[in-house]
Amino acid sequence: DNQELKDVMDLCLSCKGCKRECPSNVDVGKMKAEFLQGYYDVHGVPARAQRIADFSKSMKLAAKAPWLFNVLSGNVATRSLIQRFAGFSTRRLLPTLHPTTLDKWFRNHKPHPNAGTNGKVFLFCDEFTNYNDTPVGIATVELLERLGLSVEIPRHVESGRAAMSKGLLRRARTLATQNVELLSQVVKEQTPLIGIEPSAILSFRDEYPQLVSPGLKEKAKWIAESALMIDEYIERLINQDKLDSNMFTGKPQTIRLHGHCHQKALASLRPTIQMLELPMGYRVQLIPSGCCGMAGSFGYEAEHYEISMQIGELV
Q1: What Rg, from alpha-carbon coordinates, does the chain have?
Q2: H or E element that contains 312
Q3: DSSP letters along 36-91, please?
Q4: Can you tell me the distance from the alpha carbon of 308 to that of 315, in angstroms, rounded to the nearest whole number?
Q5: From first to last of its 315 residues, what are the pLDDT tens digits of the chain?
């Protein structure tokens, strides 16, 4: 519960860059989470950390009237009140809610005629895509179905990424345990678990095997091997000759790619590049960028705004 150590850990973004870039490959993000849980045990959980960990619950409630949430978060006066209450910088904009959730859209949508002709996948409907980036989730489902995949969203709970980022490891352990128990019943090598948001789906490979109890470790490791980002799954289909350029447009297009920190640290950008260059005329230029400085809630937090901007401008 050392205050000086807390001050040091306060500037760790949990971006996982150290796990790949440091010669010792030390995962400071995990050390920070462990430290914070111990610090909270002595001093209590700060209100802001609790609110951030409750992100999924808050969004579920707000999604009952997304238009109202968007009006309140879009109005300067009410947004400022929300930000001050949350301990966020008033110089940031708040994420908006989509008119519907991905889960609701999926249950009501009519699958493409191609769906099921090329296999089946399970889609992890992470809490960020479900409520805020719904169009990305819809595009993912539509792409997979057009490519012949039958898509199913299995029973699962939130990823626990928000809780992990704020050091609430006991809550994260409960969520990890629930997901491993639920998903181990359906996920197989032939029917993998596909994810969109890197920090959510990569939790299955990085944190889950260490979070769950000894009795669930084998199941957690099995799911970890079958948990793939959408990019990785498309790359697998390309390497298995199940996809080719003729299925896509031949129109020339240059795509500039900024890599996600978790993806660069825990996986690779290679599958993303191979996927995006599958259409014959598409070429990817990797932006030589570093961390965006947001790192979950870090860039929103009032006392971290200035340094988050500096981090984003480093490269």
Answers
A1: 20
A2: helix 305-312
A3: HHHHHHHH---HHHHHHHTHHHHHHHHTTSHHHHHHHHHSHHHHHHHHHHHTB-TT
A4: 13
A5: 899 999 999 999 998 888 888 888 899 999 999 999 999 999 999 999 999 999 999 999 999 999 999 999 999 999 999 999 999 999 999 999 999 999 999 999 999 999 999 899 999 999 999 999 999 999 999 999 999 999 999 999 999 999 999 999 999 999 999 999 999 999 988 899 999 999 999 999 999 999 999 999 999 999 999 999 999 999 999 999 999 899 999 899 999 999 998 898 889 999 999 999 999 999 999 998 888 999 989 999 999 999 999 999 998
CB-side exposure of 291: number of CA atoms within 13 Å? 22
DSSP string, 266-291: HS-SHHHHHHHT-STTEEEEE-----
**For the stretch 68-106, what's the b/e string if a residue is b when 16 or more beta carbons lie within 10 angstroms of its beta carbon?**
ebbebbeeeeebeeebeebbbbeebebeebbebbbbebb
Token pair 């971006």 is found at: 15
A 10 A CB-CB count for 107 gives 9
Quick check: 137 and 194 in contact, CB under 8 A?
A: no
In the numeric block, which tokens belong to residue 9? 């850990």
Kind of pairing between the strands at 150-152 and 282-286: unpaired
Contact partners, residue 54, CB within 8 Å, separation at least 6: 162
- Tokens of residue 232, six digits: 């990785």
Rounded CA-CA distance 169/36 in Å is 9
